[in-house]
């Protein structure tokens, strides 16, 4: 933990929910290969003894709570700051929870929702009345590719019914 503390700025931005949540602790050490995401450290797997790359927020969470994070769970940031390693800003959840947070907080690169049954019916009615793709996209907050894929699926012929009777040979 000393290695992490030595490369942490404890005077990061205030949590978005307010000062009562405290400041972000920004890891200033090594980053992932893409240069984004949580800080990383190199350590040893306690079971295999093999060196591996570890996420700083994950290590901090495990140390602070005295647990090993179970498979299938990830560390989520309530502050939406991927470099933050303040244990009070970190919670556990599933990948699905993390993706839901991303969309709800407007951090998704593609926040446009998929087309559900009701929206699909409305789109088909608009299209039948001659609405342009642009008008439909603006009205229903869908992307052009999503709209085109939806319309393409609507044009596919229904599968042929299965026939149980005797084969007819010519």
From TrEMBL:
- Boundaries of every HNH nuclease domain copy: 58-100
Q: Which InterPro entries does its entry note?
A: His-Me_finger_sf, HNH_nuc, Homing_endonuclease_His-Me
**Superkingdom of this protein's organism:** Bacteria
Q: Name one GO molecular function term.
A: endonuclease activity
Q: Where is this region: Disordered?
A: 1-21
- Name listed for the protein in its UniProt record: HNH nuclease domain-containing protein
């Amino acid at each position: 933990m000393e290695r992490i503390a030595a490369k942490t700025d404890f005077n990061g931005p205030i949590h978005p929910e307010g000062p009562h949540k405290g400041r972000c602790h920004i890891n200033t050490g090594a980053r992932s290969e893409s240069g984004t995401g949580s800080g990383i450290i190199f350590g040893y797997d306690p079971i295999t003894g093999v060196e591996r790359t570890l996420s700083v927020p994950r290590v901090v969470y495990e140390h602070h709570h005295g647990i090993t994070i179970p498979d299938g769970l990830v560390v989520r940031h309530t502050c939406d700051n991927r470099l933050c390693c303040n244990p009070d800003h970190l919670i556990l959840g599933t990948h699905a929870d993390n993706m839901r947070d991303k969309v709800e907080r407007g951090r998704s690169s593609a926040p446009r929702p998929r087309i559900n049954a009701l929206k699909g019916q409305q789109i088909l009615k608009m299209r039948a009345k001659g609405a342009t793709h642009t008008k439909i996209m603006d009205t229903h907050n869908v992307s052009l590719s999503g709209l085109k894929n939806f319309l393409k699926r609507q044009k596919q012929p229904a599968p042929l019914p299965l026939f149980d009777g005797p084969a007819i040979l010519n």
